[in-house]
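Researcher: Please translate sequence to structure tokens.
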Amino acid sequence: MILSKLHLENFKKYTSYDIEFGEGLVGIIGKNGSGKSTIFDAILFALYGEAKKRGNKDILRNANASDKDAVVVELEFEFESLEYKVVREFRGKAMSANAKFFKNGELTTTGAKEVTAAIVNLTKMSKDAFMHTLFASQKELTSLSTLKNEDRKKMIRKLLGLEKIDFVEKELVEKSRALKNEIDAFREVLLGVDEIKAKQEQIKASVEKNNALKKDEQNKTKELVTLKDKEQSIKKELDVFTKTKEQKQKLFSDLKLLTNSKSLEMLNQAKLIAENHELEHKKEELASLASVKKEYLSLQEDLKTQELLKEYHLKRVGLTKEQVQLREQYTKSKADIHVLEKECEMFEQYSFDAKNMEQDLSIRQDDIEVKHTIEQELLLEMKAEQRIIDETNAKIANIKELGQGSACPTCTRPLLEEYDNVINSLNEIVQGTHQKKIDTHNTQLKNVQEQKAKLVEQKKEKDKEYLELTKKLNIIVSKQNDLSRAKEHFTLVEQKGMKNKEELKALEQFSYDETLHAKVRKEYDELTPKYKHAVSLETELKRLDAVKKDLEKVTAHIEELKKKHQDKEQEYNKVLYDEDAHKQKLTQHDEALKTVDAQTTTLNDIKVAIASIVGEIKTIQNSLDNNDTQLKKVQTKKDDLRDYEKIKTSLAEFKTKLNAKVAPRISSLASEMYSQITKGKYQHIEVSNDFDFFIYDEGKKYPIERFSGGEIDLANLVLRIAISKTLTELSGASSIGFLAFDEVFGSQDEARRMEILEAFHTIKEQYRQIFLISHEMEIKEMFERVVEL
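Model: Translation complete:
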């Protein structure tokens, strides 16, 4: 893997940044806090979707970016002669993750988890393996020689991934112990040989008893079948008696129903004869009232005519009164319209003034908003500058707390004579740059706030003038509405007067006589009772024909019922039924049922006994079967325990072989580089299987602690490079073509730095890219390519 380009948007301290990585020895140079380490945080985030330290996603977003601004990281790299590009994004307030993966410009994978899986599949390295293999810091290098033996072994085993084997080995021990406990627990519940034999004998005795009961059950079943046959025979005879009795009872009910029907029809016949006689009498009475109906209808027409003439008379009187009122309203409406038209004359002028004033107020409001925007921008800039001052002051306080003899938290070099320079430099940044900007912004802010306050006051005065003008305009608008309604009312009054005049002219042709009207009404009222009685008689006589027809039907139906009654009576007398014989047969059937029930009870008792014995046999057999099952489980667990022991043995052998392979390989790689860096002064670095380090000086082996600080730093460097090389070989990631080191120069003098750089130039043949991160600005000329931050 060779890194080509990196693009950042709103990622940590970078708002927007692009970098192109060249090949060879590349220096990432910048002052403390310039964002050097952030570059490789972004590379790790692009590949695996996570920064070096896991935490809240919000810390990835630039402090000046809003929730709407996306966090974007794009990384282009070459792998096995193919071009790849990975894009990671966090969007929205919830920081929703998205990712895309391109191969030779073609989109192949989308989705955050899917892209991570594709990267792991391509490089054959997880995030942790990638970090341990390709990244190293000064703290990590120093730890190789300064940690206690056990701690150093743990660190190296973690780098090499051997702690996973230790974890598996521990798990195997725990599993084996648990299996042994389970096997011991099973022995407590398993049946002994004597218990098994006793249960088998018990099953045999129960089977013999069960066979005897089944034989008895067969005999009792045959007897029960004979008893049931006898009971069924008696039941058939009893059914004949029951059917005969039911037939006799049904015929009696039918005969009684016919008698009742005949009686009801005879009563209905008498009622219809009386009604027919009464209707004939009313028919004669109606004939005598024939002239009344004709006279009543004539009076009714005369009365309608008089009522219509009265209506016309009353309408003419009403219209005459209404015309007087309309004349008064016409005069008043005309005067009101004249007054309202005078009051609305200033509407056009007020409307023109209001529009001009609205435009003026809008312009003033725009000016106020512009001043407000400038005010907010100045406050934000002052806040940003103050945050930088606070961060710088915190650094100053931290350095003062560490003291002159303490190591720099970034490069581990003692501050010593640089202590005052560093403090003064930081104070100068605070006072000379950021505080001066705050003071300038503060002066600008006061001017803007004064201008804004003056504009607001002027706008308030204009608002008052506009309010007064609006009130006058609203009054005129109200008067205009009144004028419109007054004109509408005037038109309606005028139209109503014309219409009434026409109607009065049309009503002049009609004449109304109140005395004549009263006379016709009196004659009509006197004749009405007779007319109503005649109408009532007509209504009643409509039933005469229907009554005569019903009388004929009822008479015929009575004759029919008499005939049916005679036939049903003869049929009833022919049915023969002996009630005493029926009762005797019922007694015989009850006795037969009791005998069958007794035999059934006996047979059920035998079946219950058989079921009980079968249950006992099943329970005992289940106990034996369960014992066999538990024996098989115990055997399975014994087999598992044996397998675990074999795996533990194999794993121990694998660890021994791996240690025997890894330690010599690290030693070989480290020795070759260390000899070259020291120009042959030290020929060999030995790494034991327990990861203790020794340096050979003139053929003798010495612990690494015996040598000077610079020599130890060089040894730590070549050992860490050798570990990375070995990790790459073990993981099979042969196409990873770069290494990255963070602040590895430490306390080296210029000559040692040159030696270290020469060593990096030597291994450049194996790694096409080597990145060195440093805050030492004076060494930037030593690199083939420099990225200065």
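Researcher: Any highlights?
Model: The first helix runs from residue 36 to 48.
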